[in-house]
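ok, trying the design again with the full structure, not the truncated one.
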């Protein structure tokens, strides 16, 4: 069995945009709406985690760079 590919930030945002478009267009019934909102919340949490990790890595790189220049 193949290991599923990890989703990128861009892919997750694309899925989130599709969900928002479906909600805006009133394409979903109540049951689908609840499921899509749950999925959207998971995607938002995933993206927030990715951004937080990237921010920490950038701060770490910049602090290391400023120590090198001193």
């Amino acid at each position: 069995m193949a290991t599923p590919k990890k989703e990128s930030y861009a892919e997750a945002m694309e899925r989130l945009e599709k969900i928002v478009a479906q909600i805006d267009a009133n394409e979903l019934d109540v049951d689908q709406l609840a499921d899509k909102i749950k999925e959207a919340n998971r995607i938002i949490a995933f993206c927030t985690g990715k951004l937080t990790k990237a921010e920490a890595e950038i701060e770490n790189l910049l602090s290391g760079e400023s120590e090198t220049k001193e």
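Keeping the full-length input from now on. Residues 9-69 form one domain.
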